[in-house]
Amino acid sequence: MDDLNTTIRKLVAANRILAMEGVVDAFGHISVRHPDNPNRYLMSRSRSPELVDASDIMEFDMNSDPIDAKGRQPYLERFIHGAVLHARKDVHSVVHNHSYELIPFGVTQVPLRPIFHSAGRIGAHVPVWDIREKFGDTKMLVENNDHGRDLVATLGSDTVVLMRGHGCAVTAASIEDVVLTSIYLRVNARLQMDAMRMGEVTYLSAGEVALNSQLNKPKVGNARAWEYLCTRARVDA
Ligand SMILES: [Zn+2]
């Protein structure tokens, strides 16, 4: 387990990496469970991820209330993170983003499925959450804990949940994992659309997904990818 300073350093790096890799733009965010208190989490103040530094990192409880805001404005959609981290003890880091490539899979009946080995980590089943089913017309944003809990009910025990007409939430056991899964989720969506235009698609089988999830998750694999991603984003690994 990383200590607090290392966790904050990695969280800042993850913000820069997600921006560098095009997963987030002005919007989107990443959280991590507090290393010393499992009922708290850490996330930037409301700021574009590319610009985040350590002084922006705030602490929240599981209701997504800030512990000591010091005048800093939190993200409006922080309830995604609190709801997931409260319900899923196996999850330690969460990404919310609005990747354009994902949108078609949230508004059609075509399931997003792993199409290449690196994307096995997104899981065999990617559910779609529609905020309108329970809440009617809204601004489409997860702006309270009722919205967050309903999103988590659709996520269930899966890794990724798409949000109809909005984006996604990605979960993982570590910052490194959630960054890699967010990157390959977006690539998978692009490749799946390309392949579907060409004809019938052969997806990874459930067994291949399970084996690739194990293959991609060991620390050594992540360390190699993390060093690469930090170098590209010009941050310390
Ligand atoms: Zn959003």
Would you spell out the secondary-structure blueprint of this structure?
Layout: H1 4-20, E1 29-33, E2 40-44, E3 57-61, H2 79-87, E4 93-97, H3 103-107, E5 128-129, H4 131-135, H5 145-155, E6 160-163, E7 167-172, H6 175-198, H7 206-216, H8 219-233
Parallel strand pairs: 5-6
Antiparallel strand pairs: 1-2, 1-4, 2-3, 4-7, 6-7
This protein binds zinc ion (ZN).
Zinc ion (ZN) binds at residues 77, 96, 98, 141, 166-167.
Describe the 3D structure.
The protein is of the alpha+beta class and 237 residues long. It has a single domain, classed as 3-Layer(aba) Sandwich (L-fuculose-1-phosphate Aldolase), CATH 3.40.225.10. The chain is 41% helix and 14% strand. The chain has a seven-stranded mixed sheet, sandwiched between helices. Strand 1 (29-33) and strand 2 form a beta hairpin. Helix 1 (4-20) packs parallel to helix 6 (175-198), helix 1 crosses helix 8 (219-233) and helix 2 crosses helix 5 (145-155). The radius of gyration is 17 Å and the shape is globular. Zinc ion binds at residues 77, 96, 98, 141, 166-167.
For the structure shown, list the relevant keywords:
8 helices, globular, alpha+beta, L-fuculose-1-phosphate Aldolase, 7 strands, 237 residues, binds zinc ion, 7-stranded mixed beta sheet
